[in-house]
Specification:
two-stranded antiparallel sheet; 15 helices
Length: 356
């Protein structure tokens, strides 16, 4: 019995044990300060579903051999463009069940754009084997800088999107009120003990996890994983390694597009310019906190990691602000906590240069 318990602890991992313990301690402190615990836990659950698909995008990237995909911002840009086009066309007001039609059209447009971008991104990564994560970080930052220019010149005309005075350029934050705001969150939602459960949001997250799991178990998914695990053996077995790497990159980028639309509808706004700049780092941190490494990632790592990482941010920031109530410290504490978790996750990658 003792050996089984020890193996279970080793399997769960010391970093996860420390983070779970810290998470529990934060809730105890929050209770001590008289904070609204049901409200805090509601925020944890909402953020879990809100960020989950963005973190899920890391799995096919790791499995195909390109490593942690810091270039997920390519997919995020594709999803943002899908959302902006839907708002521009005012689809939610022009069709029956408008909000649902709007979010589905946004996803379809985002998937098309991100898949095209992901294909060419995959071609680039095939040229820089061994330096994928460095190049993907550069690509991630570069595409945001490029889109900062494009957001000023793209020919959108909707008053919801553009600055009202000049009429040129898109707003920093675009409201989805009247479009596809919270369509998943409000589906089958309920409250229990003061804790709000966005059922539709969670179901869609778990459904997407299931679809990715099925893909990984398919012939193409297994060939992709084989190419990532041992390219030489895979090539000798007749697998086109470069093609499989591109497939994983496209799937990862496409999930980024779907993920940002789910994030935006839950948040209620589309944020552009530099807002998506660090999203790749947060997704990487979450999957690493869940137990993944640079060569191994599973669906379970996504589910656990997203809950722990977003849970820590949701609880730690209000607790820190209660302990240090000075108003000008809130942003400082946010940066310290979020970047501290990212740094901790990056130093606890599971070390494995081997795959399970």
């Amino acid at each position: 019995m003792k050996e089984k318990f020890k193996k279970a602890l080793e399997s769960f991992g010391l970093p996860r044990i420390i983070i779970v313990a810290f998470f529990i301690v934060l809730f105890i402190i929050a209770a001590g300060y008289g904070m609204n615990l049901p409200s805090l836990f509601s925020d944890v659950i909402r953020r879990w579903g809100m960020y989950g698909i963005l973190v899920l995008a890391m799995v096919p990237a790791v499995q195909c051999g390109i490593g942690l995909n810091f270039g997920i911002t390519l997919g995020i840009v594709g999803g943002i463009l899908g959302g902006l086009i839907v708002v521009e066309m005012d689809i939610a007001r022009n069709f029956p069940m408008g909000p649902w039609v709007a979010v589905l059209v946004a996803m379809i447009i985002g998937l098309i754009i991100s898949s095209i971008l992901g294909y060419f991104y995959g071609l680039v990564l095939n040229k820089v084997k061994g330096s994928e994560m460095t190049v993907s970080t550069y690509v991630g930052f570069s595409v945001i800088a490029f889109m900062n220019i494009m957001w000023l010149v793209l020919p959108f005309k909707s008053g919801t999107l553009i600055w009202p005075v000049s009429g040129d350029g898109l707003r920093n934050t675009i409201s989805l009120d009247g479009s596809f705001i919270k369509v998943f969150n409000r589906t089958l939602d309920f409250s229990i003990g003061g804790v709000y459960i966005p059922t539709g949001l969670l179901l869609f997250f778990f459904f997407t996890c299931f679809i990715v799991w099925l893909f990984l178990k398919s012939k193409s998914g297994m060939a992709m994983a084989a190419a990532g695990a041992n390219p030489v053996f895979a090539k000798a077995s007749g697998i086109n390694v470069n093609k499989m790497r591109i497939l994983g990159t496209v799937v990862s980028t496409a999930l980024g597009a779907v993920g940002i639309i789910i994030y935006a509808q839950s948040y209620g706004f589309i944020q552009i310019y530099n807002a998506p700049l660090m999203m790749g780092f947060h997704c990487v941190a979450a999957v690493l906190v869940g137990g993944a490494s640079i060569v191994r990632a599973k669906i379970s790592h996504v589910i656990l990691g997203t809950f722990l990482y977003q849970g820590l941010l949701a609880v730690a920031l209000p607790v820190a602000n209660s302990i240090l109530p000075e108003g000008n410290l809130s942003d400082v504490m946010r940066l310290i906590i979020s970047n501290g978790i990212i740094l901790y996750a990056l130093t606890k990658t599971g070390g494995g240069n081997t795959r399970e």
